[in-house]
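To make the argument concrete, we let one protein speak, a sequence paired with a row of structure tokens, as a model reads it:
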Amino acid sequence: MTIALNPLAITALVAALDEHRVITDPGTCEIYSHDETPRLCLPLAVVFPRSHEETVAIMQIAIECGIVLIARGAGSGNVGGALPSPQSIVVSFECMNQVLEFHPEDRYIVVQAGVITGEIDRIAREHGLFYPPDPGSAAYSRIGGNLAMNAAGPRAVKYGVTRDYVMGLRAVTGTGSGITSGCRTTKGVMGYDLTRLLVGSEGTLALITEATLRLLPIPEARATLRVCYASNSDACRAVSRVMNQAVIPCALEFMDSFSIRAIQAAGAATDLPTGTHSLLMVEADGATDDLPRQIHALQAALTGTGMLDLQIASDKNAVAALWTARKALSHAVKAIAPLKINEDVVVPVSRLAELVIHIEHLAHTYRLPIVSFGHAGNGNLHVNIMVDPADTDQMQRAKCALHELFSQVLALGGTLTGEHGVGSEKRPYVTMEIDPDSLTIMRQIKQQFDPHNLLNPEKLLP
């Protein structure tokens, strides 16, 4: 049965926005009924604010009418963070796509929540600066979604994650109030740090409308190494050696044997030496004169048992060629099975080899292809359990493998999510990691920010 939105709410929303930015037709609502997870839920409507003030108005109408609001950027998340709830309205920030201020002399930019992440980096680079966080979705994801999930990417090993570049925010809480947090200086300790609290809160505490982001100067030069190993554990031990010496790479990516097979089946990385079962992509950047020293140090750390081949590229085209395989991976993996259960676990780098060995054990025990790749320099692996959702037995085995994976990650001193967030998909596992007293405080924070429980309910907290 289709449930219609309260006519009074429609009237109020149209008055606050306009009739072209309050959409209730089922065809449009279906587009916004899901993110990258396989589940979907049809919202009552989709609204498109253009300003902080319009977002305040939407929140106040939601409170008055008792309507749940789901914040949405590009819908590129894969944990159900932007999945609508029953009888909810999706607040899409794609019309809030303006750069409000840009101060290259002070290395910061102020943007609305709907600006595409890659566009921020492009603008910064025109002035000799760059925006360091580089999630794989940067070409199409919106900064609001990155802020909500505290997104990261390959450069996080050296430069950190989204939260590390947020100087301040404007947001609308579940009380209908607009708040401003942070400052426009690189130092500032006035009051509680609401900025860091809101980044990563997955739209459960407030609707982020604007962000002040820190930028850095572009490094003069960079070089990339592609290193092949005879086994996954050989590569992981090399990662540990790299992260225990003085030169910090700006990227350190790992691909396991299943990953290599997938990209080779897709026609990439066809030049790997025979016997390659694992691959590392390592990148260094910095001053041109210093780059040879960095490469020499990284080569020394990468060389060891099981290394089969090491290639270096420093010119732009050669670097792009070496990264082709890594960028082809996400699409290549989809050819293995109809559904990938995509996890982003993290362990201390010194325990990475143990984790990879355990994943190999799970693949054998549960008779499932498990493809592992990711940001090895942070100990952050994307573990993809490949399944056919129509196969009941396979899905049950995958569920058991997933629980065992999470248990092992925690036993190794790790965490169950490094950059994708919790959303609805990982919510059942939160109590495996977070203790009851801490969860009580988190629920109290949620109640303070969102007393009516209208902001992205049934997400993040169990």
The chain has a mean pLDDT of 95. The longest strand covers residues 206-214. DSSP finds 15 helices and 18 strands in the chain.
